[in-house]
TrEMBL record:
This is Leucine-rich repeat protein. PANTHER family: LRR RECEPTOR-LIKE SERINE_THREONINE-PROTEIN KINASE FLS2, UNNAMED PRODUCT. GO terms for cellular component: endomembrane system; plasma membrane. Keywords: Cell membrane, Glycoprotein, Membrane, Receptor, Signal, Transmembrane, Transmembrane helix. Gene3D superfamilies: Ribonuclease Inhibitor (3.80.10.10).
Length: 289
């Protein structure tokens, strides 16, 4: 069987070179199960000419050595498998733009300070990674960063993120310390900080205008909750299961807001209403709680 006839293989027009491999499981619901015993792959045998490699939701085993991936690789997506090894991210091909290895069994620490300069998306969610991470030296073009559901620890600095970043997911780790949300990138739309051990007060008055989802539940945040100047595009704000113990200040909520949860805190009974009338829906909402 000629390699050009293999399922999921794309050949270049100007010669017999493999330029793309797509072995993603396209069965309905494949992304919601975790298949096992589906064979082993040796990434070091991938052709040097491959620019895109997709193998999501297959349950395949294997050890990934980032330094042995094809040097022309631009996209590498292997989420929801049973891959192991350590992620030596600085050893990735210099031209890689998207790297997704979420829902595997990678372990060890990761270095985010020497990522390939062209990287736009990095997803390493739900592995067995640990240690501290640095967000102050990320590639300037990085738009999406997902490191949630691991065992990372330490503090994080959100004041020097790339200006084009629109998604950051650090949920379900062991991060601690205070949060400064006043200098987030203007492009930030989805921010997941839930289920960590962040503490102290949090400023919700200087969020970026494009922010749509902000998840803060399940931390140890304290002090007041001031909601009178939320971004107009904000759709979801979760603050439940913290230790807020001050005053709740509310104003007109964003017109399209679907979820606002402040339950399971220790707020005082004092509620300040800003620029609201007795007929405003926010006032009516407060009176029913």
């Amino acid at each position: 069987l000629d390699i050009g006839d293999w399922k999921g293989i794309s050949i270049s027009n100007d010669g017999p070179s493999v330029i793309m491999i797509d072995w993603t499981n396209t069965a309905q619901g494949a992304d919601r199960i975790h298949p096992e015993s589906q064979g082993t792959i040796h990434f070091e045998w991938l052709p040097d000419t491959v620019g895109c490699f997709h193998m999501n939701d297959q349950g395949v085993e294997g050890v990934l050595d980032c330094a042995k991936l094809p040097r022309r690789l631009r996209i590498f997506a292997v989420a929801n498998n049973r891959l192991t090894g350590e992620l030596e991210l600085p050893a990735l091909p210099i031209g890689i733009e998207k790297f997704s290895s979420s829902e595997n069994f990678f372990s060890g620490t990761v270095d985010l300070t020497r990522l390939p300069v062209k990287l736009e998306m990095l997803g390493i969610v739900q592995n067995k990674l640990y240690g501290t991470v640095c967000f102050t030296k990320l590639p300037s073009g990085l738009q999406v960063l997902g490191i949630g559901k691991n065992a990372f620890s330490g503090t994080i600095d959100l004041t020097q993120l790339p200006p084009v970043m629109n998604q950051l997911h650090v949920n379900s780790n062991n991060f601690h310390g205070t949060l400064n949300l006043s200098m987030l990138p203007p492009a930030m739309a989805h921010l997941s900080l839930e289920e960590n051990r962040f503490e102290g007060t949090v400023d919700l008055l200087h969020l970026p205008e494009n922010l749509r989802d902000l998840y803060l539940e399940g931390n140890r945040l304290t002090g007041d909750i001031n909601l009178h100047a939320l971004p107009e595009r904000l759709d979801i704000l979760t603050l439940q299961k913290n230790s807020f113990d001050g005053t709740l200040t509310m104003g007109k909520l964003p017109g399209g807001m679907r979820v606002l949860n402040i339950l399971e805190n220790s707020l005082s009974k004092d509620v300040q209403l800003v620029d609201l009338s007795e007929d405003d829906k926010v006032v009516k909402w407060i009176k029913t709680q």
